[in-house]
Amino acid sequence: PTLPYDDDNIFARILRGEIPSKRVYEDEYALAFHDIAPQAPQHILVIPKGRYVSWDDFTARAGDVEIAGFVRAVGRVAREAGMVTPGYRLLSNVGADGGQEVPHLHVHIFAGKPLGRMIA
Ligand code: 5GP
């Protein structure tokens, strides 16, 4: 990965329960919670429980069961949050040019209004 994993990053601290979060889903592989600064009516973050910075890091080092567990959790959160109809958007920012602020892999899920057309 571009960035080294930092055990004191904010999502690591949320995982350890050192910082409160509004949790919406948790299992062995993933934790989901509301973004503190929502950019849509619904804005949830889903993170893997392992120490991964990015998608490239995660898919290089995680096992298939762990990857499947995390990806499955993303879809499950969208379903359980009632986003399937009328729809939602997934986003991961990675690295400096990607605008990543927190160096722990995360997927944003946005929903709750027409999100418009976004290429980049
Ligand atoms: P990034 O820019 O790295 O893709 O997104 C980081 C996201 O984490 C931002 O949307 C930001 O609002 C969110 N965030 C930052 N600090 C906290 C926090 O302490 N709690 C929660 N719930 N979200 C946070």
Describe what is shown at a glance.
This protein has 4 helices and 5 strands, in the order αβββααβαβ. The protein is of the alpha+beta class. The mean pLDDT is 96.
Could you characterize the architecture of this molecule?
With about 120 residues, the protein is an alpha+beta fold. It has a single domain, classed as 2-Layer Sandwich (HIT family, subunit A), CATH 3.30.428.10. It is about 30% helix and about 20% strand. It contains four helices and five strands. The chain has helices at about 10-15, 55-60, 65-80, 95-100, and strands at about 25, 30-35, 40-50, 90, 105-110. The chain has a five-stranded antiparallel beta sheet, with helices on one face. Strand 1 and strand 2 form a beta hairpin. The radius of gyration is 14 Å and the shape is globular. The model has no long low-confidence stretch (mean pLDDT about 95). The structure holds guanosine-5'-monophosphate (5GP). Guanosine-5'-monophosphate (5GP) binds near residues 19, 93, 100 and 101.
